[in-house]
Amino acid sequence: MNILVVGGGGREHAICMSVSKSKKADKIYCAPGNAGIASVAECVPIGAMEFDKLVDFAKNNSIDFCIVGMDDPLVGGLVDLMEEAGIRTFGPKKNAAILEGSKAFAKDLMKKYNIPTAAYENFDSYDEAIEYIKKSKFPIVLKADGLALGKGVLICNTVDEAIEGAREIMLDKKFGESGNRMVVEEFMTGREVSVLSFVDGKTIRIMTSAQDHKRAGDGDTGLNTGGMGTFSPSPFYTDEVDDYCKKYIYQATVDAMRSENREFKGIIFFGLMITENGPRVLEYNARFGDPEAQVVLPRMKNDILEVMEACVDGKLDDITLEFEDNAAVCVVLASDGYPVAYEKGKIIKGFEAFDNKSDYFCFHAGTKFDDDGNIVTNGGRVLGITAKGDTLKEARTNAYRATEWIDFDNKYMRHDIGKAIDEA
Ligand code: AMP
Ligand code: GLY
Fold it and tell me: What residue ranges define each of the domains in the chain, with the CATH number in brackets?
């Protein structure tokens, strides 16, 4: 099959690498891709939101199967357009991608179908939100309804902070139209776990667990980012947690979407908080996590295209997912200053150290070729350095060792990715 992957970050690099190992893959394209993806796929200079151009490209290049990796094109309806053009496409249609695209929708769905989550209220009016906030217990969590690059969530410790936060979201429109509605949610405490799953509309298959580190600085300080590092599996995802989620969360979510005539095919990413009272859904995403994909996919034994085709065809029932009995850790190398302001265009050196090492992966996120053919930094998150090991601790040691093989100006990373492993 000829494949088109849509996106250009570390997640899409991990997807392209898995696709390149499939016996079903012939030619692989990635739009727009990046300098690392170029080593496993042909990069096409079309942006992920240029829907007409993507559909034309797919038609003109005999694409048999399209994989949409990113949230924006999913929420915007790219899957619908591809399928209307006769291109089989992996990912939820627009009416199902709303599971990620609107936090207010997701919360109402969970309430209606008794899926465990934090107590909340949705607001279209700033004044009504403020009234509610003034009567609330603190801390409290404010969430812009729509997509906000993982940054539209504010945890507020006092009334004043919450009033200021509501103003930023709903009046100043710091996250754009995403702030037309706002969810105000109870603050929960506990361990966070990311669980990715394949879904074919009715059947769900859970992948191995992972944990992200969302804050920019060591010790979970600083601003929220897209994710500074991950490990998999999570030692906190116990059999007991798994049983609970299977009983009350996973299949319940798939069934709820079907009942609403929003059949979901693709990836559901469950962002879970394991609280004292059991697991609760923090958020849903409609795609692989980034950088969760960079620790989960390298451990998956299945042929990814077989699994994705089964999702599209409604035949996931026939598939058993298999993961290696080991561990992986990913440390993100970012540009100093991320997620606020940072320089680009710095030459990156050291890639050759990863050659011929099957347990080490250098996933590219924000990289490109400059006019002289050098690979240079081109974003906040630059690379995701993943290593496997027999145990989480070994994987962590290996990943940090490999971060030293790479060099560029303003290289920044967290030094405590996977520290939680020591507390397990
Ligand atoms: P979300 O995008 O909804 O996953 O939120 C981003 C991050 O904010 C999560 O990973 C949590 O660390 C935190 N967060 C979100 N909702 C809550 C909540 N109700 N209680 C505590 N922390 C939360
Ligand atoms: N790493 C979290 C996310 O992809 O949303």
Answer: 2-93 (3.40.50.20), 119-186 (3.30.1490.20), 191-318 (3.30.470.20), 327-423 (3.90.600.10)
151 pLDDT more than 80 = no
Judged by DSSP in three states, 296 sits in helix
- Going by alpha carbons, the residue nearest to atom 4 of ligand 2 is 289
Return the residue whose CA atom lies nearest to atom 6 of ligand 1: 153
Q: What is the pLDDT of residues 152-184, one digit of tens each?
A: 899 999 999 999 999 999 999 999 999 999 999
Q: Residue 42 C-alpha to ligand 1 middle, in angstroms?
A: 37
Residue 85 near ligand 1, beta carbon < 6 Å: no
Q: Which atom number of ligand 2 is nearest to the Cα of residue 291?
A: 1
DSSP-based three-state secondary structure for 154: strand
Q: What is the pLDDT of residues 102-147, one digit of tens each?
A: 999 999 999 999 999 999 999 999 999 999 999 999 999 999 999 9
Q: How far apart are CA 44 and CA 57, in angstroms?
A: 9
Give 170's DSSP letter. I
106 lines ligand 1 (CB under 6 A): no
> First and final CA of the chain: distance in angstroms?
43
